[in-house]
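Everyone, describe these structure tokens:
***
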Amino acid sequence: MKGHTFLKAFILIVMLPLIISCERGGDTAALSAKGAATSASALSEPGELQGLRLYLGYCFVCHGQNGDGKGPYAEKLSSPPADFTDSTYFGRKTDVELYDFISKGGLAHGKSMHMKPFGFQMTPEQIQSAIAYIRLVNRHEKIDAAEDHGYSGEDIYRNSCVMCHGESGGGDGRVSKMMNLSVRPLSAETLGEYSAAGLFNVVEQGFPQDSTGVRSYMPAWGNTLTEKEIIDVIDYIRSFED
């Protein structure tokens, strides 16, 4: 009897790590499933306007202001950027696939090295907003940006301008470094070239893609920002002069 009891105890001791491992594996699987569900839920909450502002900050230099893959930097690349207006191709891609591609970049998926991994520059929420905007472009729809969404000038600058112009307007933003772009600093000398109305027009209308030099990298924000928001972001930019 004692021998039988000892044998049962021995088997339990031997099997205990396996039992614990299986239980932990089940917990891990449950957490993974919960995480996937959370990600899918988050991706279903669109933020098209925020996505547009991020798109103009990060993506337009290659993919074009209209998402057609004809950005001002596209002709310098060895392979053409993706055309987000291609409903046949992007209609088959899930939000999770797009998130993974934007986050990890082209090389991680056997695609162009020019598509950089933006998971280090953009938060998960920002990537989700960018995807929401890409979906809008793919449906050939536009955003009504006439409503003031309560962003301050600093908010707008940090959401949309900082990627090229840098934290303090030095032209040293992450995208300008990543793409080796030449961006004019928002110095007192540069800003002094424009009247208040002239600077408003620059932000509202940008510079056309067929212009030369650094000016070809300035998108038009008139369809993205309200008049008040443009004035507010200009006021914030003016603080760089101090």
